[in-house]
Amino acid sequence: MNEHPLEILSDDLKLQGVLTTPESDSWPLVILSHGFLSHKDSSKYRQLAQIFAQESIATVRFDFRGCGESEGLLAESSISRRWRDLQKVIARVLEMDGFDGRLGLLGSSLGGYLALLEASRNSQVRCVAAWSTPSHLHDLAKRLPEASPVEFSQECYEDLLTVELLSRLENVQRVLIVHGEKDQQVPPEHGSRLYEVLDEPKALRILEKADHRFSAPESREEAIRLSVEWFQRFL
Question: Superfamily assignment of 2-234 in CATH?
Answer without folding.
Answer: Alpha/Beta hydrolase fold, catalytic domain (3.40.50.1820)
